[in-house]
Design a protein that fits this description.
The complex is a heterodimer of chains A (about 500) and B (about 525). Chain A is an all-alpha fold and about 500 residues long. Chain A is about 75% helix and about 0% strand. The chains are: A mainly alpha (about 500), B mainly alpha (about 525). Chains A and B meet through helix 12, helix 15, helix 17, helix 18 and helix 19 of A and helix 5, helix 6 and helix 7 of B.
Chain lengths: ~500, ~525
């Protein structure tokens, strides 16, 4: 058993526990220190994770846990997301009741995401997802004195539990028909398995669970309510880390466990993706609450990512991952602006953003970069991701009329998307009426978070080669066998014993 | 050399970003100096390029996103050499007319330089990824400039309409580019490689016919092809002068440039199928938009619609698929770019001096503002195709080039464009400049007073001088353009490729181990 493969996960969890412990000694007046410690620790971990990114593939826990190109790629982005959210939280240290717990929960959710990136087994996938989801139940309802936060928490809890139920049932069916839950072992037997209706039902039910995490139609219903009700900080992490974890797992299932099924039924993803884009884009038009708008935008973006799965190719998979990498920075850039305005104005109505360009040029810039990138306009990351997805889908033209339809929907989605993103920008730059033009103060840590997010969005947009190359390797790595070959792990036959 | 030209505006934008917002004069000077150097650089490129030589010159290449097949590749030939010069001239003039901007100066010049850089990059890039990339960079700055510094009651509406139409067009073109990439199998969007590759492995007829409309209507919408034109006139009327100058003068040309560069040589079967359609649609621009211009009482709307009518000539030239016609189109692109910029600069001045662009409220302006009035007369003359201005050889080339293939359309176009154009331009001159001075306008200031008159008239001179120069000596342009057009026309007239159904060549589904 090679525990060194789990270094980052273990250290993140320990950091979370450490923050909880430190809270006992750090006086209530200097809570910010906790956030600074947590963020610094995570920063060190990020450097370590990037520095040690190429120790070669390996598996642990009898093939359940895998370290490969995909896990390395995804973990880097998860750590960045966690780091930016923690940096951003420092400002609110005095207003969040129970700040130490908040930081610790973010770190625990991050641990779940890191495990999700490495999950090579339906069981570990479920455990990692539950770790993320259960922590988010608390994070969403963290503002106990705000009714909307509690309401969002309850909604997320009920629907999340339902989705988990579907997923467990699906995993049971998969185990029943395949006699294993390991992705690699399933993939070796997939040709026979995908003819079994029980197995297919199992995969479908698992996709229901994942569809809930990524807010794809028809499991998107929670997203706007929860995004709006949750504290902006939580929403920013929910929209990036949690969503990305769902997509990374979906990539594992679709491209590693059952690639033949993905290739054969890829049009299902195209169909769901198109409907998701339409739903997200059209429902976002009348929104006045920016957080809610981001919820719908998040749904629409899930649709684009699903189109990449629909392409069912190396190009499609790497487009998804490249999109996801840029998406994390993009959404965080937007949410930094939203978080600062919401905590200053105590409202997330579009009118609260009026004249932001003059009140705080920093925040206006951050919000602009985020929203413009979400709209898919160069030179920002969102453009490159959308282009890659379109390209991967366009290759399939001629295989099915669904492909052309989904391309048209994608075009429509971008145009509609531009409309509602520009609606926010309009308020930022040329409001109809501004009553208050007092400057909004921005702290150093927030500026640091902002620089990270904006720089990431711009760099991935202008110099996408590194990201795209990483994404390609990650997806290509999924197709190589990885279980019993590595000496570090026991043979995968013990998988079932491990359960 | 070209990379310097491309980076100059962006470097200026970065410099503007770093200067504190309250140093207004320095911000203006930085923008002025940057665009000034850009003009000099563009001029030196213009003369460094050898005329009468086919192929790309001054090429610079670098790997950019090799794993996706996109590379940085810039170069000039006859098609874009005039347009880069145009971009720099219009940008310089646009900075000159922006001297009176007081509100959020920093953001203003940042946006202006971004638009300039985007347009420059779009023209210089020989990789279609970067052509699209740079063209789209300009979208948000345009939106912000129109919103913050625009005018008129319909500003919000016009700004949104323009942004959405432009995005729709750009997205259609993007889907076209993505499909072209996928269908060609060349694994690149580099125009040189694509040309060579598709000459060997032409796309199947059916996919050409499918792809061509995506380019035609996608890029066509960016130009204001009828019936996707309704964003243009109200949009430019609502925009601040500098934005209208840059967009109508330069950015709009990217669509036509891309059509000539991409759609014509790469998809000969698509050309054969769709050019007759374009020949009919261009009449929509020439006649319908000309008629709209005839009915306008607002100077800015009149010029917007007249500009759309001019674009109709460009589409007619495209539809002719002849060397004379397309050379004419490229001349019009340059000429009309200068003219449109001049028009909007002048309208901007009239609005600033009198507070309105409604022609019913204006009159006799030649007396209080002789310099501006003089420029308006010259601009309108150029607009109705008077010999001596660069528009004339261009429109003549288009009409001559199209006569062989589309005689009927040429008759309508010549009648419509030149006659209607003459009528509305002369009527506008009469109601704007001649007659008694309207009450309240006696004191309307000319371009400037005393010494200021000279440098305040500079932007008009910067645009008028090349307009006249290229009009008197069109050969300067034509002998550069023609060698580039000949291979394009040859490729567009290539014999039909065998009809076989495209099996997409690279269905690289993940192979299970």
């Amino acid at each position: 058993m090679n525990y060194s493969l789990l270094t980052v996960e273990i250290l993140t969890a320990l950091l979370g526990l450490g923050v909880l412990l430190l809270d006992l000694w750090i006086p209530a007046t200097s809570r910010k220190l906790l956030g600074i410690i947590a963020a610094t620790g995570l920063g060190v971990l990020l450097v370590y994770a990037i520095g040690s990114a190429a120790p070669g593939d390996g598996t642990a826990f009898g093939g359940m846990f895998v370290v490969d190109a995909l896990s390395g790629y995804a973990k880097g982005f998860f750590l960045v997301a966690g780091l930016i959210v923690l940096l951003l939280s420092i400002d609110s240290a005095d207003t969040i009741h129970g700040y130490a717990e908040y930081c610790a929960l973010i770190l625990f959710a991050l641990t779940g995401m890191l495990f999700a990136a490495s999950a090579n087994d339906f069981v570990l996938m479920f455990v990692a997802l539950e770790l993320i989801t259960v922590t988010f139940y608390i994070l969403v309802s963290f503002q106990r004195n705000r009714l909307s936060s509690l309401e969002a928490g309850v909604k997320y809890l009920i629907l999340g539990a339902l989705a988990s139920g579907f997923m467990v049932f699906g995993i049971a069916l998969i185990f029943g028909s395949a006699n294993t839950t390991n992705f690699y072992e399933i993939s070796t037997a997939q040709t026979a398995l995908i003819k079994s209706p029980v197995f297919l039902t199992g995969i479908l039910l698992t996709l229901v669970g994942l569809g809930f995490k990524i807010a794809a139609f028809p499991f998107q219903i929670w997203a706007p309510d929860v995004y709006q009700g949750a504290p902006a900080l939580t929403t920013s992490f929910l929209a990036t880390g949690s969503k990305a974890a769902g997509f990374v797992l979906l990539a594992r299932v679709a491209f590693e466990a059952v690639p033949e099924l993905t290739a054969a039924r890829g049009h299902l993803f195209l169909g769901i993706g198109s409907i998701t884009i339409l739903y997200g884009s059209l429902c976002a038009i009348p929104q006045r609450s920016v957080k809610r708008l981001m919820g719908y935008s998040s749904i629409a973006n899930a649709g684009y990512l699903l189109l990449g799965f629909g392409a069912a190719s190396l190009a499609g998979g790497s487009a998804v991952l490249a999109y996801l990498g840029g998406y994390i920075f993009t959404v965080l850039a937007a949410f930094i602006g939203i978080q600062v305005v919401v905590s200053h104005q105590e409202s997330d109505d579009i009118s609260a953003f009026a004249g932001l360009a003059r009140r705080s040029p920093w925040m206006a810039a951050s919000l602009t970069v985020g929203l413009v990138s979400l709209a898919g306009i160069p030179p920002l990351a969102g453009f490159f991701g959308k282009l890659m997805i379109l390209k991967a889908v366009a290759v399939q033209v001629g295989t099915s009329p669904m492909v052309i339809l989904s391309l048209l929907v994608a075009v429509l989605g971008v145009v509609v998307g531009l409309y509602y993103y520009l609606g926010v920008l309009r308020s930022v730059y040329w409001p109809r009426s501004v009553s208050d033009l007092s400057p909004i103060p921005v702290s150093g840590t927030t500026k640091l978070a902002l620089i990270f997010a904006v720089l990431g969005t711009v760099l991935i947009g202008v110099l996408p080669e590194t990201t795209y190359q990483g994404a390609r390797q990650a997806v290509a790595g999924l197709a190589t066998p990885k279980s019993p070959a590595t000496p570090a792990s026991p043979p995968s036959a013990t998988t079932q014993a491990a359960k | 050399m070209l990379t310097t030209l491309l980076l100059l505006p962006f470097a200026g934008a970065l410099a503007v970003l770093l200067i504190p917002a309250n140093y207004r004069v320095i911000l203006r000077l930085v923008a002025l100096i940057t665009t000034g150097i850009t003009v000099l650089q563009a001029l030196s490129v213009f003369f460094a390029m050898q005329p009468e030589v086919a192929g790309f010159q001054l090429v610079e290449q670098a790997a950019w996103i090799p794993s996706a097949g996109f590379n940085y590749h810039v170069g000039v030939d006859g098609l874009n050499i005039g347009l880069t010069l145009l971009t720099s001239l219009v940008a310089f003039a646009a900075v000159c007319v922006s001297w009176d901007i007081e509100k959020q100066t920093k953001l203003y010049y940042f946006c202006l330089l971004l638009i300039t850089g985007g347009a420059m990059g779009a023209f210089l890039s020989l990789d279609l990824f970067f052509l699209y990339f740079f063209n789209e960079i300009a979208l948000v700055p345009t939106f912000l400039m129109m919103g913050i510094w625009g005018r008129g009651e319909r500003k919000f509406h016009a700004t949104y309409q323009m942004a959405l139409y432009l995005t729709l067009g750009a997205m259609l073109a993007l889907v076209g580019l993505a499909s072209l990439y996928a269908a060609s199998g060349a694994n690149t969007l580099d125009i040189v490689t694509l040309n060579a590759w598709l000459a060997q492995h032409p796309l199947s007829s059916s996919s050409q016919r499918l792809l061509f409309p995506l380019f035609l209507f996608g890029f066509g919408t960016l130009v204001g092809l009828w019936p996707f034109h309704s964003w243009a006139a109200p949009g430019y009327a609502a925009a601040p002068p500098a934005t209208a100058m840059l967009h109508a003068g330069v950015l709009k040309k990217v669509g036509l440039y891309a059509l000539i560069r991409v759609a014509l040589p790469l998809m000969p079967d698509g050309v054969r199928t769709w050019m007759p359609v374009l020949a009919v649609l261009c009449l929509g621009n020439i006649l319908y938009c000309g008629w709209l211009a005839l009915r306008q009482r607002d100077l800015a709307l009149l010029l917007g619609n007249s500009s759309l009518a001019h674009m109709g000539f460009c589409f007619l030239g495209l539809a002719s698929v002849s060397v004379t016609g397309i050379t004419g189109v490229v001349v019009i692109l340059v000429a009309h770019g200068l003219l449109a910029a001049l028009n909007y600069a002048l309208v901007g001045h009239v609005v600033r001096a009198t507070g309105t662009s409604d022609m019913d409220k204006l009159g006799g302006l030649l007396r209080p503002m002789p310099v501006v009035g003089f420029c308006v007369v010259l601009a309108f003359m150029a607009g109705c195709g008077m010999p001596g201005f660069a528009n004339f050889p261009g429109e003549l080339g288009v009409l001559f080039g199209a006569w062989d293939r589309l005689p009927l359309v040429v008759i309508f176009a010549a009648w419509g464009g030149l006659l209607i154009g003459g009528v509305y331009m002369l009527r506008a001159i009469r109601s704007l400049l001649h007659g008694p001075v309207r009450a309240g306008l006696e004191g309307a200031s000319d371009a400037g007073v005393g010494i200021a008159l000279y440098w305040r008239s500079l932007p008009y001179a910067v645009l008028l001088v090349p307009l006249v120069f290229f009009g008197i000596s069109p050969d300067t342009l034509v002998r550069r353009i023609e060698p580039a057009v000949i291979p394009i026309v040859k490729a567009a007239a290539a014999p039909s490729s065998p009809t076989l159904d495209t099996k997409s060549p690279s269905l690289t589904s993940l192979s299970p181990r």
